Amino acid sequence: MSQNNRKCKIVVDAMGGDYVPLNPIHGAIQAESQSSTLEVLLIGDKNKIKKTITDEKLNFDESKIIHAPEVIDMHDSPTTALKQKKDSSIVKGAELVKEQKADAFVSAGNTGAMMAASTLLMGRIKGFGRPTIGAQFPTSDKKTCTLYDVGASVDSKAIHLLEYAIMGTIYAQEIDGLKNPSVGLLSVGEEESKGNKITFEALELLKNSKLNFVGNVEGRDILNGGTDIIVCDGFTGNIILKFGESFISFLKNRVKSYAGEGILNKIYALITKKVFKESLRDMDYQSHGGVPLLGVNGISIIGHGSSSALAMKNMILKANEMFQKGLINKLKEGREYYGNL
Description:
By secondary structure, this protein is α/β, with parallel strands linked by helices. It has 13 helices and eleven strands. A six-stranded mixed beta sheet has the order 3-2-1-4-11-10, sandwiched between helices. It has a five-stranded mixed beta sheet with strand order 5-6-9-7-8.
């Protein structure tokens, strides 16, 4: 079945996100029906979860609901909330992984709190100073480019960029099936003489590693393709991510504005609507689910606050895949090898 010959036990935060507990419940039920290698536990306000299951006439084993009466909402300070809301779904969910009572934790709740709880409670994998989250961008060659880090931290050092590249490489090999993923360093030019203090230092570390490092790349190379993984500091990466997330809504608004200028324009817009929808399908976050927080000593998947039932299901399936392929152990083994330490 799995690497441990047992099902992956996944804790799903039923109170994290904009549409709770409905979407997490639906996502959990759909994931269990799709895979026989996982078991889902729902964590949150038990009365609210049970009421939703009853109202929606759903079938879910009540014994797999873990009561957590407190909720860390989107406006709570992550570190303060961890101290003051110890009975919250996020804190108790991360603790279950730490205590090895669960194999993974999935939440579409407060991102900062998820990262803090996963890092502080699950702990870091030895050799990784900073956890990282990546974002996949579609490329012109119909592949993907994954950018690390996109906001797990904002003050990365050069050594952290090397660690992001190592984690990204192992993830790409094990989950994306890339045999020898290429790694680029985001800079202001391809020449080694261009960059800042962090990129100059990171360049030397990456060149001396066993990674498939292709050198400096520029911002345009993210969408142009040709590089599987690009690393940068979290401050820069988060700005790029937020800019990318705005692209589809910007495009929709421009088309809507164009269509409103006349009946002929409206006809043209309707003709191209399906083309846009199909060609940009791989930019829909729901099809990918959430993003893993790599570098923590446990499987932690962080989802978008507006995650649908489909997104929740895919987050759960992704956590299961990481477990089945032994990703945490692969990260532990790969740190020394790829870093040439």
